[in-house]
Amino acid sequence: xxxxxxxxxxxxxxxxxxxxxxxxxxxxxxxxxxxxxxxxxxxxxxxxxxxxxxxxxxxxxxxxxxxxxxxxxxxxxxxxxxxxxxxxxxxxxxxxxxxxxxxxxxxxxxxxxxxxxxxxxxxxxxxxxxxxxxxxxxxxxxxxxxxxxxxxxxxxxxxxxxxxxxxxxxxxxxxxxxxxxxxxxxxxxxxxxxxxxxxxxxxxxxxxxxxxxxxxxxxxxxxxxxxxxxxxxxxxxxxxxxxxxxxxxxxxxxxxxxxxxxxxxxxxxxxxxxxxxxxxxxxxxxxxxxxxxxxxxxxxxxxxxxxxxxxxxxxxxxxxxxxx
Length: 324
Description:
Radius of gyration: 19 Å
Largest sheet: 8 strands, mixed
Helix content: 10-25%
Low-confidence stretches: 183-190, 198-207, 311-324
Strand content: 25-35%
Number of helices: 7
Order of helices and strands: EEEEEEEEHEEHEEEHEEEHHEHH
Strand order of the largest sheet: 1-2-3-8-7-6-5-4
Shape: globular
Number of strands: 17
Oligomer: single chain
Distance between the termini: 25 Å
């Protein structure tokens, strides 16, 4: 099978597996190469760093090994990542759902490859406004994708949903990932006219029909991070307000919303903390008090967009996707 090159997270992935949700890359070289070895594998030898819930009772465990890192998923098997993050080896179990494995690859596994190369990755949703990246941090079910959808309809561009790499530098930059938003039924109906389920109730919908003009595929300067705080009614009747966090609180917020925080504890905890502290020296982090009301979220999105719409692209220094 011929390997193909895919564009993701500001870099290029070489894979013999077909990954439909990723755009093809025109790059000549790959930043990451996915190798597949058939047959399940035992847990790697090394330090168990931590574990996290993927969904339901399915968990993932993180390991530090002499030659890199490893992630072991209950359902999709073991992924090894080389010391510099450039080589990913999947030990493919005999019976495995390919869609689940690719979902793991394009979230935690590539986030681990980025980490090995010194890139901090947030569990967040992000958009670009006026050529600058804005990230929204929150636990599951807090409305990250919903708020970003409202921002896209207000003129922002979808940058990434769920996994957001932050590349350090004098001006930290956010890299584009998977901009297809996952919305609950009520939000999908509200924003994109998706019909409700026949049986009623809420479920997730993958919104993959954004126009090309609504998607950001460039690395953009990281201008601000917002920790979502849904409230019944913000102060003074405002639909949304923000409060800037001090350096310590901002650092803790980034650590708490690190994509790999739960699986990179132990000896990797100081690394995660150092990366987060470095970022908050140049990127403001706010608590965003936003009314939890779908009928008013459009107004809240317009307010937030207004805070950042003055960014100039030439001042932002936008760059094309680059290597890891």
